[in-house]
Amino acid sequence: MPRDPSTALRSARDDGPAKTPAEILKKIRALEIKTKGLVQTMFAGDYHSVFKGRGMNFEDVREYQPGDEIRAIDWNVTARLGTAFVKKFTEERELTVVLVVDVSASGNFGSVSQSKRELAAEVACLLAFSAIRNNDKVGLLLFSDRVELFIPPKKGRSHTLRIIREILFFEPAGRGTAPALALDYLNKVVTRRAVVFFVSDFQTSDFTRELSVSGRRHDFIAVHVQDQREEHLPNVGLITLEDAETGEQIEINTGDRTTRTRFSALAETRRVELNRILRRNNIDAISLRTGENYLPALRSFFKQRERRLAVR
Questions:
Q1: Are 78 and 149 members of one domain?
Q2: Closest Cα partner for 97 from 131, 142, 56?
Q3: Domain boundary pick from 66, 92, 118
Q4: Torsion angle of the four alpha carbons 119, 123, 126, 128, in this order, in degrees rounded to the nearest 10
Q5: Same domain assignment for residues 66 and 177
Q6: Cβ of 289: how many Cβ atoms within 10 Å?
Q7: Whole-structure pTM value
Q8: pLDDT confidence of 58, banded at 50, 70, 90?
C-alpha cells in the first residue's frame, strides 16, 4: 500500500521514554494494575471463549456407559479388566500467543495525550495478561524496517512484565516499516500454529504475500492503531508536515477545504484497501484510535468472533 501525507504528521507532544529505572518501573506497574483489573473483571472470559487449544489431552478411563462413543473404548484396559472402559479427555487449553508490534517512528505520533505506540503497549499488555491468566505462553516480536527484537513465548508474570517493558521503552535502530521481514521471521521461528496479534498503524508498502502465508499458518488478528489527525486535518492554516520515518517535509495550507477533503479521501482509500487485503486473506481485524476507550472495540471483536465460531 502506498504511503500518504498522513504519515508525515508529527506529534507536538514528545515526552520521550522514561529516563530512570524508577520512572520505567512506575509506568509499567501502573499499566499492569490497569490492565490486570480489566482482565479480572470483564475481559478474560471473552478471550477464553474464542481461542481454543490445539487438541485433547488424555486424562483417565472410566467404565463404559450406554451412549458412549465406541471409538473411545480403551481396548487394552477393557481386555485386562474384563469390563468395557472408555478414555476420558480434557481440552488442551495451552496456546502460544505472539504479539508482533510495529515500533517504527510513525508510532510515536499522537495528537492527543497518547501516542500510537502507547496505545499499542496498553492493548498488548491486556492481551498478554489475558493469555497468562489462561495458562498460555506469550512471545514478542518488535519490528521497524528490520526485526528489532524477538522474545520466545514463555509463561509467568515476570516474563510478561519484560514484554511490556520492551514494548514501551525499546529504542529501535530503524525508523521505517517492513512488516514483510517481520512476518518472514515469525514464520521461521514460530513453527507451530500460534495466535498472532499484529499491532501496527499499517503505514507501509504492500506485504500481501507474506501476510497470506502467515494468515494460513497462524490464527492471525490485525490490530490497526490510528490517530484521528491521520484521517482528518484541522483548519489551522499553513503548516509543515514531516514524515517521521523518512524526514521528508511538505508544506500545505489546511485552510483550503479542497486540501482537507483530498487528505481525508486519501486516508479513507488506504483504510478501504487495507480492509480489502485483510478480508481477502481471511484475517480478522480490530480498529483502535488514540485517545478513545479501546475496550468496547476489543469486546465487540471477541463477541462477533464467538458468534461466528458458534455457527461453524
A1: no
A2: 131
A3: 92
A4: -120
A5: no
A6: 19
A7: 0.77
A8: low
